[in-house]
């Protein structure tokens, strides 16, 4: 049990300081820990950028109170920004490609946001373009643009990274995390490298995603079901810093799905597909540390479980792989 906390005046004050919990089924000589981001008030890692970026945009005068945040998002970012906007006296509009989970869109609306859908085939690029079109028509609006705004990375450099290092007294050998915008991994990674230049930084993407092109590889672009990570077009991923990354680990949808089910069955973790992929990759890195093929300063691997499976029950996340609708 955690210790009793002081009463807080806003739910925004509960963003961050999430628990770090061991992942089991790893070699005995290597510890793997996951940062459980579903403990945030909007139940995902994206509450961090919602709170941090909205506050910074107000502070810098890029938006005035009463203005509108317009953001292209797979959903979790929308929920994070919707909470922050509401609590800080702003409006919010989210542009979401159709394929993303119903639950997320319902939650954004419940928080008072407007949701606009763009066709799935236009990918995230279509949502980004539409958000900018809307912003040019709406006065006192801003597109925080999580895919290119350095404040995204800064959020994790300022919060997630230090929290992990505090919890482990700085003894982190490897950081392995999924990349959607890549803000999470770049922020933690930069913090990690400043603490120890030999820390291994591993980016995780689904098979079918093409982040590997940043490392001069030629992965084929294909469909994938894993939600929240991966890219179809590296040109839209302006935050990814190849020099900060040791490797890009591809995880198949099937392996991610098997792992998210294992995490529920064996570890009491109700996490979604991007966490399944992160866990597979973190355990692979732990195996490499254990068998001596990867040298790191400490035998401790840290990963991030970005959100909860409850958000994807309507997509059959706990059904068979074939029935799972991604
Ligand atoms: N998992 C899920 C479920 C997400 O929504 C996101 C954000 N798109 C990520 C992982 C990846 O986080 P980031 O954008 O910081 O790379």
UniProtKB/TrEMBL annotation:
Gene Ontology MF annotations: transferase activity
Keyword Amino-acid biosynthesis in annotation: yes
UniProt entry tagged with the keyword Amino-acid biosynthesis: yes
GO terms classed as biological process: cysteine biosynthetic process
Cofactor names: pyridoxal 5'-phosphate
Tryptophan synthase beta chain-like PALP domain mapped to chain residues: 12-307
Keywords: Amino-acid biosynthesis, Cysteine biosynthesis, Pyridoxal phosphate, Transferase
Residues annotated as transmembrane: none
InterPro entries: Cys_Synth/Cystath_Beta-Synth (IPR050214), P-phosphate_BS (IPR001216), TrpB-like_PALP (IPR001926), TrpB-like_PALP_sf (IPR036052)
Pfam families recorded: PALP
Similarity field: Belongs to the cysteine synthase/cystathionine beta-synthase family.
Name by which UniProt lists this protein: PLP-dependent cysteine synthase family protein
